[in-house]
Structures are given as structure tokens and as C-alpha cells.
């Protein structure tokens, strides 16, 4: 028996009718005990749901500075790189966006720094 090349197989697939391709798929399933694409579709659905459940980037929002306004201003300056006056205006304008489109890891780190200073923080 002559060995078929990949090009021979692709040429056959190009010329075969839908009925012939359907019979080929059934024969492969029967011979090798596999199923055409059903497990892939089932496995993809939970991964898509998980990706949709948790956003990849968020915006960190300072809701309030609490009782430690000066400490929060210092942390905001460190995080944003703003000067003293601009950081004070940002904190005074709470609720205010501290950083936009950051990863969840970075957002959690920023939240920890701000809450340790006495602020209340949320994500959008």
C-alpha cells in the first residue's frame, strides 16, 4: 500500500462532498474511539465564563481618605508620581480615580497600600 502524503489528504478533502466528509468523520470516530469536537466545546465554556467573571484590568478608585489624610496623600504621591499639591487635590476630590487600567495584582497592591494608610478603596 502506498503511503499517502499530507498533500494527498488535503487534496481529497478539497474535492470531497459534504456527505463523503461526514462519512469520513464517522469512520474515524468509530475506528479510533474519538468524538469530533464535543469535549473541546465543553471545556472552552468554563474558561470563557471565568475570563468574563474577572476583568483583566481595573481602575483603582479612592472612595475616602478616612482620618489619615496626610498619610493617604503620601501614598497617593508614591503611587501616581504626582507632586504634593496635585496629590492633595486628588485626595480632596474623593471619590477619585487613582490609577486606570491596571492589572488585578497591581490594583490589589495599591489597595493594600492605601488601606494601610487609612483610606477606603474600590475597583471599577
Describe this structure in words.
The chain has 124 residues and is α+β, with helices and mostly antiparallel strands. The chain has two domains: 6-50, no CATH class; 57-123, Ribosomal protein L7/L12, C-terminal domain/Adaptor protein ClpS (Ribosomal Protein L30, Chain: A). It is built from six helices and three strands. A three-stranded antiparallel sheet has the order 2-1-3, with helices on one face. The longest helix is centred in the middle third of the chain and has 16 residues, at 38-53. The radius of gyration is 29 Å and the shape is rod-shaped. The relative contact order is 0.14.
Counting DSSP H or I runs of 4 or more residues, the number of helices is: 6
Gyration radius, rounded: 29 Å
Strand-residue fraction?
15-25%
Low-confidence stretches: none
> Can you write the helix and strand succession as a string?
HHHEHHEHE
Q: Count the beta strands.
A: 3
Class by alpha and beta content: alpha+beta
Strand order of the largest sheet: 2-1-3
Helix amount, in percent? 55-70%
Q: Please, what is the CATH homologous superfamily of the largest domain?
A: Ribosomal protein L7/L12, C-terminal domain/Adaptor protein ClpS
Q: At the first level of CATH, what is the class of the largest domain?
A: Alpha Beta
What name does the CATH topology of the largest domain carry? Ribosomal Protein L30, Chain: A
Q: How many structural domains in the coordinates?
A: 2
What is the CATH architecture descriptor of the largest domain?
2-Layer Sandwich
The shape is rod-shaped
